[in-house]
Write a structure and sequence with these properties.
Blueprint lengths: L5 E5 L3 H12 L3 E6 L10 E4 L2 E4 L5 E2 L3 H9 L4 H4 E4 L2 E6 L5 E6 L7 H8 L6 H16 L8 H7 L4 H16 L8 H12 L8 E4 L3 H4 L1 H10 L3 E4 L3 E7 L2 E7 L2 E3 L3 E4 L3 H9 L5 H8 L3 E11 L9 E5 L5 E4 L8 E7 L9 H15 L6 E14 L19 E3 L18 H19 L1
Parallel strand pairs: 1-2, 1-14, 2-10, 7-16, 14-20
Antiparallel strand pairs: 3-4, 5-9, 6-9, 7-8, 11-12, 12-13, 15-18, 15-19, 16-17, 17-18
The structure holds flavin-adenine dinucleotide.
The site of flavin-adenine dinucleotide has 36 residues, from helix 1, strand 2, strand 15, strand 19 and helix 14.
C-alpha cells in the first residue's frame, strides 16, 4: 500500500534540497521552508558589483558520488557544470614562489594512479618516493583503534617531514577545515581512503564552471516545482509543536501548519534551538551544542587584466593564503579566489592588511601579477563543524525519537560500516538528505 505523505522540510541548504528531491522522486508532496531570501545555505551565490560570486569558493571531487547521483536525478548536465581536472597538487611557497610539492595523478586505476603519480613527482629522490609509497600505503590501510590528532598520527608514520608539512597537512586543513594538530586522524584517514582506495576518477577535481546557485539549488528548485512541490523562501520556522511522541504542527512566519512528517534540515545551531524546546529532544539539542565550528575566509581579488595560475587550484604554504583558485573556470578570468581555512592570524588582521599580504604572496607565484582593482572578503564564521577526535559523539543521527521528525544536514552522523562520519562537506550534506528521505520512503511507499 502506498501512503503518500505531506512533508515539511525546514531549511533550503543542499541537505534539505537533496531530501526534497528524493521525496518528490517517490511521489510524496513536499513544502520546503527557507528562512532567507535564497536557497543554498552555506553554499550559495551572492552579487558583488554586477558579478555573481559564491559565499565561499567550493571544491568538489570525483568522490562526491551522491552529488553526481542527485544531479543525474534532476537531469543536470554534469559535464557542463564542472571542469573535471585530473588531480594535481601543486603547492608553492608563499615567500619564494618555489615549488614545495607537485603531485600529478595519472588516470590509471587505483592504486596505480598513486604509484605513478608519486614516481613522477619531481621534488623527491627515488629513495624518498619508494619510502613514501610504502609508508603512505601503511598509513592509509592500518586501522586506527584509538583516535588521535592528525599531527600525532602522521608523526608515527615516519614519512619524510617535507611530505607531511608540504602536502598532507595542507590537504588535511582543506578536507576537514581543521588544523592538523586538532583534526581527527580517523576522519582524515577515512577521507584519504575514500579518495585513494577508489576508482582513479574519484581523485579528479570538479571545479564549478558557474556560480554555486546554478550548480545545484536553482536546478533542484526547478525539479521540485515540476514535481508539484512547494518552495517558500523568507519563511522561518519558529517552533515545532509536539503531541505525544509526534510533531503536531509547526509555526512558520507566525502561522500554524500541519504536516504528516517534518525534516529538520537547518544548520546545526538553528536545529539545536528548535529542538531544545521539545522535551524529548533536549538531549539531542545538548549534543549538537557541543559541536565547535571553524571559519572559512574567501578573498576575491579582481584584477585589471586576465590572470592565471600555474595550476587552476594552487596550494600555498608558509603564508596566510591556503589555496588559490582561478575563477576563469567559473566565467571570470580577471578574478582569483583565495581561501583561508579555520582559525588563524588572518582573522585579526584589518582587511586592508590582509589584502596587501595576500597580494604580496601572489606576486611570488604569478609573474607579472596584474594591478588589483578591488577585492571582496567574505568570512563565514561557522562554515563547518570542527572535525576533532571524537566529534562523531556530538553528531546526532537521523532519528529523533519522535515518530515523524527526522534530521539531516552535514553535521548529522550517518552510520556506514563503523566508519567515521564524513566531514562537514557538500557530499556529507547530500548523503544525509538522501538517507533521511529514504528512511521515510521505505516506510511509506
Ligand atoms: C566558505 C565555505 C567554504 C566551503 N567549502 C567547501 C568545499 O570546498 N567543499 C565542500 O564539500 N564543502 C565546503 N563547505 C561546506 C558546505 O558548504 C556545507 O557542508 C554545506 O553547504 C552544508 O549544507 P546543509 O544543507 O547541511 O546546511 P546549510 O547550508 O547550513 O543549510 C541550512 C539552511 O537552513 C536554513 N534555516 C536555518 N534555520 C531555519 C529556520 N528556522 N527556518 C527555515 N530555514 C532555516 C538556513 O538559512 C540554510 O539555508 C564550505 C562551507 C563554507 C561556508
Amino acid at each position: 500500500m502506498s501512503l503518500k505523505q505531506h512533508i515539511a522540510i525546514v531549511g533550503g541548504g543542499w541537505a534539505g534540497l537533496a531530501a526534497a528531491i528524493e521525496l518528490c522522486k517517490h511521489g510524496h508532496t513536499i513544502t520546503l521552508f527557507e528562512s532567507s531570501p535564497q536557497l543554498g545555505g552555506r553554499a550559495r551565490s551572492i552579487e558583488w558589483n554586477d558579478i555573481t560570486l559564491d559565499n565561499g569558493q567550493h571544491l568538489m571531487l570525483g568522490a562526491y558520488q551522491q552529488m553526481l547521483e542527485c544531479l543525474n536525478t534532476i537531469q543536470a548536465d554534469v559535464k557542463s557544470l564542472f571542469k573535471q581536472l585530473p588531480h594535481r597538487m601543486l603547492i608553492l611557497d608563499a615567500q619564494t614562489g618555489s615549488s614545495a610539492f607537485d603531485l600529478q595523478l595519472p588516470t590509471y586505476p587505483a592504486p596505480l594512479h598513486l604509484l605513478f603519480g608519486v614516481l613522477n613527482t619531481p621534488s623527491l629522490s627515488v629513495k624518498e618516493k619508494l619510502l613514501l609509497l610504502l609508508r603512505f600505503n601503511k598509513l592509509l590501510n592500518t586501522t586506527i583503534t584509538t583516535d588521535m590528532n592528525v599531527t600525532e598520527w602522521l608523526s608515527q608514520a615516519k614519512l619524510p617531514a617535507r611530505y607531511i608539512k608540504n602536502l598532507l597537512e595542507p590537504v588535511c586543513l582543506a578536507a576537514l577545515t581543521t588544523h592538523p594538530n586538532e583534526a581527527s586522524a580517523r576522519a582524515f584517514q577515512n577521507v584519504l581512503q575514500q579518495t585513494f582506495n577508489a576508482p582513479a576518477e574519484f581523485t579528479d577535481l570538479l571545479i564549478p564552471t558557474t556560480d554555486l546557485n546554478q550548480v545545484f539549488p536553482a536546478l533542484a528548485k526547478e525539479y521540485i516545482l515540476q514535481q508539484g512541490g512547494e518552495i517558500k523562501t523568507r519563511h522561518k520556522v519558529q517552533q515545532l509543536q509536539i503531541e505525544g511522541s509526534c510533531i503536531k504542527s509547526i509555526t512558520v512566519n507566525d502561522e500554524v501548519l500541519c504536516f504528516d512528517q517534518v525534516i529538520l534540515a537547518a544548520s546545526p545551531a538553528a536545529s539545536a534551538k528548535l529542538l531544545e524546546k521539545l522535551q524529548p529532544c533536549r538531549n539531542i539539542s545538548l549534543q549538537i551544542n557541543r559541536l565547535k565550528y571553524e571559519p572559512v575566509a574567501t578573498l576575491y581579488l579582481h584584477f585589471k587584466q586576465a590572470v592565471s595560475l600555474p595550476c587552476p587550484m594552487t596550494g600555498i604554504i608558509n603564508g596566510i593564503s591556503n589555496w588559490v583558485f582561478e575563477r576563469s573556470l567559473s566565467g571570470n578570468d580577471h578574478l582569483l579566489a583565495v581561501v583561508i581555512s579555520a582559525q588563524g592570524p588572518h582573522l585579526e588582521m584589518p582587511e586592508e592588511n590582509l589584502v596587501k599580504t595576500v597580494y604580496a604572496e601572489l606576486k611570488h607565484i604569478i609573474n607579472p601579477l596584474p594591478e588589483l582593482l578591488k577585492s571582496k572578503l567574505i568570512i563565514e564564521k561557522r562554515a563547518t563543524f570542527q572535525c576533532h577526535p571524537g566529534v562523531d559523539n556530538n553528531r546526532p543521527g537521523i532519528d529523533t525519537g519522535l515518530s515523524n521528525l527526522k534530521l539531516c544536514g552535514d553535521y548529522v552522523y550517518i552510520e556506514e560500516n563503523n566508519q567515521p562520519g564524513l566531514p562537514s562537506t557538500l557530499e556529507g550534506a547530500l548523503c544525509s538528505g538522501v538517507k533521511c528521505a529514504k528512511s521515510i520512503v521505505s516506510k511509506h511507499n
